[in-house]
Write a structure and sequence with these properties.
It is built from 18 helices and 2 strands. The chain has about 450 residues and is an all-alpha fold. α15 runs antiparallel to α16 (about 355-385).
Length: about 450
């Protein structure tokens, strides 16, 4: 049973009537939540460079799946290795889509359930579930059914962590310090993605199952610590108030969101995610198909490249985005980011050398992505007329939809048209979005200062 002092269990009542915990008391829960988000994204990044090896180990495929993949058109004159890379990319797309689809479907359920049962049990469940999913992943080498089961379980359980963690921060902070709490979780999100692929590539080079077991160990260790010292953020009265609120139909809610002035910006974030998932999920097979990596060093090289993208993002978002927004505005940064990202995708297609990729292409892709993401999120928040929770969760929903469609599309394009096809598509789509920012310039325009709060 967890031990908490009486003072730490006593909520403070703010002037607006919302129950908040005293500022000095929220440090420990915030740190635990930050670690939870970091581990979730670190675990995701750790397994990413090793997916091609796991997928390759399942080949040759079962007859029914081989027949299904054979229905996709193939590039003329393709070698047996090219066909294996194409099959692997297609399977990788299916695995990634299954993970994202379960997140998309279960995230609303976990959010609503945490309103009734509390944030703490949902977060604890997510940690032990994530740990179990990575153990299953580590054991799945060569077993396609177990591999899919591991990714489905990871999607279900990870959907209970990040969204509920952000809700927890909203519970225990006042409006004045909420941005600081959200920023801490956002920073850990970026750090996890930046260092996960590097660590995963290094560990996977030693032993293919080691990254998954390390990720599982971190999740289970966080579960043990949180079990003893993570308090509940909601009182029984607050849970009752949340569950007694009137509910509107999905169609009515969607109509409100799509008619909001911020809705056109969802296209920007959708395109950004759709293009980047092609890099994430098919990247290992792309590197091998282009001769930039082989089966022996693929994990290391993919991990270093994805890590470099993440580090560029940390540097840019941590030091430059704030001053750039003040000087040029969110809309101009979105436009600049789309242009840089388009160039990055095009550069990615040109070289066959390792140095050119890591020093040029990753800097461009990481910079463009980092300029668009926070700028679009901030502009959506400032332009929205509906509730902030609704508009931000809707934005995340479109992001999850892109993460479901993107890997499937990338795998199908890779298998049917060749290794460069997903990146050509991403570049073309991003160029189109860049042009749309001029046609729909009102979407990037700030609201009247009197209305912006």
């Amino acid at each position: 049973m967890r031990s908490l002092s009486p003072m730490k269990d006593v909520p403070m009542r703010s002037p607006d009537g919302l129950e908040k915990r005293e500022e000095s008391v929220i440090t420990r829960p915030l740190i635990l939540l930050a670690i939870t988000v970091f581990i979730d994204l670190l675990g995701f990044g750790i397994v990413l460079p090793n997916l091609p090896a796991y997928i390759t180990a399942t080949l040759p495929l079962p007859a029914w799946l081989a027949a299904l993949l054979a229905s996709f058109p193939r590039p003329a004159g393709g070698s047996e290795i090219a066909e294996m890379n194409g099959d692997g990319a297609l399977l990788g797309g299916l695995l990634a889509a299954s993970y994202s689809l379960t997140q998309f479907l279960f995230a609303p359920f976990w959010g609503a359930y945490s309103d009734r049962a509390g944030r703490r049990p949902v977060i604890l469940f997510s940690l032990i579930g994530i740990g179990a999913s990575y153990i299953l992943f580590g054991l799945s080498n060569g077993n396609l059914g177990m591999l899919f089961a591991a990714r489905l379980l990871a999607g279900v359980t990870s959907s209970a962590s990040i969204g509920v963690a952000f809700a927890y921060v909203a519970d225990i902070t006042t409006p004045q310090n909420r941005a600081k709490g959200m920023g801490l979780l956002g920073a850990c999100f970026g750090l996890g993605f930046a260092f996960g692929p590097v660590l995963g590539g290094f560990l996977g080079h030693i032993n293919i199952a080691l990254p998954a077991y390390v990720a599982a160990g971190m999740a289970l260790a966080n579960f043990a610590v949180s079990w003893f010292i993570l308090p509940e953020s909601l009182t029984k009265e607050k849970m009752l108030a949340l569950t007694s609120q009137p509910r509107t139909s999905f169609a009515a809610t969607l109509n409100r969101v799509l008619r909001d002035p911020a809705a056109p910006l969802f296209l920007i974030t959708f395109v950004l995610t759709l293009g980047f998932t092609a890099i994430e999920q098919a990247f290992g097979f792309f590197l091998m198909a282009r001769g930039i990596a082989d089966a022996d060093n693929q994990q290391l090289r993919q991990g270093y490249l994805l890590g470099a993208v993440g580090v560029v993002g940390i540097i840019l978002q941590g030091a430059l985005v704030g001053p750039l927004v003040k000087r040029f505005g969110e809309g101009n940064l979105i436009r600049a980011g789309l242009f840089i990202l388009s160039v990055g995708y095009i550069v990615l297609l040109q070289p066959r050398s390792w140095g050119w990729l890591i020093f040029v292409a990753t800097v461009l892709v990481g910079s463009g992505r980092s300029l668009i993401g926070p700028s679009a999120t901030a502009l959506i928040s400032r332009k929205a007329n509906v509730e902030q929770g609704l508009i931000q969760s809707s934005s995340q929903g479109f992001d999850a939809l892109a993460r479901t469609i993107g890997p499937l599309l990338a795998g199908a394009l890779f298998s049917s048209l060749g290794a460069t096809a997903p990146y050509i598509f991403s570049a073309g789509l991003t160029v189109l979005a860049f042009l749309l920012t001029f046609a729909l310039s009102g979407a990037l325009r700030l609201p009247d200062p009197k209305e912006d709060s």
